[in-house]
Response regulator
Amino acid sequence: MADAQLQTRFYSGRDGSVTETTKQTIALVDDDRNILASVQMTLEAEGYQVRTYTDGEQALQDLTTRPVDLAVLDIKMPRMDGMELLQRLRARSSLPIIFLSSKDEEVDQLMGLRLGADDYITKPFSQRLLIERIRALLRRNEVNRAEAAGEATGSLLVRGNLTLDEARHRSQWRGGDVPLTVTEFLLVKALAARPGLVKSRDQLIDAAYGDNIYVDDRTIDSHIKRVRKKFRQVDDDFNQIETLYGIGYRYKEE
């Protein structure tokens, strides 16, 4: 079993039974030790196991051999910044990743999302907001893991040349693998489930992030652009996801 799941905790189910479950591990990467200490304390109080790193190079070396359930990255760090670390991690896995940064310019947010981050939160930030975003991402990842382990019934969605295998978190176009993050997979699934039906950005936010989570519309636009780019790496002519300006997106029927 991976280090990310070595420790256990217990909780009471609705029927009164006691169930053993594993602690989820979160990596915090930030050169500000005060932020690391504060966020670590908050997350540990919420029941998470936390590993902290003060630079990207140190984090990459450790996370390559000791995976975690989710990573929270700062952008401005010594030796290796958050953008490069994100790219290195994305080359290895679809690990849920949240950017936590003082760089609040729109171009930085869009760049982070286009490189594959699942979310972007600017400093100063609400720790409660960070916890809710973490919970939302981890819930989605838990479902994928459960299905892959056979603990839940996975489903296969086929739309012409598109195949989405939920149980294995696998996306294919014309038989070629398209590596999607958790957020990207859920967006494609929401669109492809009802071809021809327009999905507003709010509906896509609910599908990818869950209810009661605020995400800027530009976040969805950035994810969609990255999804298109990934599919076009497999097929230059991919054009199934249409933009309806001022309305939202739809998956074009083949």
